[in-house]
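FIELD: query
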Amino acid sequence: MGKMFFGTYVFNQALSFDTSLVTDMGHMFMSGYNFDETLDFDTSSVIDMKSMLYNAYSFNHPLLFDTRNVNSMNSMFYMAKSFNQALSFDTSSVTDMYEMFHSAHAFNHSLAFNTTSVTTMVIMFSQTHSLSDCNKKKIHDEFSSSTTWSATPYDVWATFPLC
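FIELD: result
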């Protein structure tokens, strides 16, 4: 299903199909600028969600995905400008979170992700303009034990006050 709706700029229809055996959802809605429908997918077999909602400007629905097998969330919400939903993902298998929320301008939630397997978080939160200092502090405190967090430019977040 990788790239299935890639570049469907005006597509915005409800989807319903069996995804229980799908392993690749990478780039699935990339550049689906107007897509804003609920995604009720069985993602238990998915290993790649790289750029899944990249440039999905309008998308803003809760994601109740089973992500226990996913290893790449690279750029998953890159420029998903309207996305502002709490996420409860099992990220214990994820190794790549590069640019995951880059330019997700509306995103303003703390994250409780397991980052022990992550090897890159570079510019993960670059240009997330709505992310409050309170949530930055929570994210920093949650992620700072990861060895890859130290390679990010977010050390200043440790100085923000608790909320």
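FIELD: remark
The mean pLDDT is 95.
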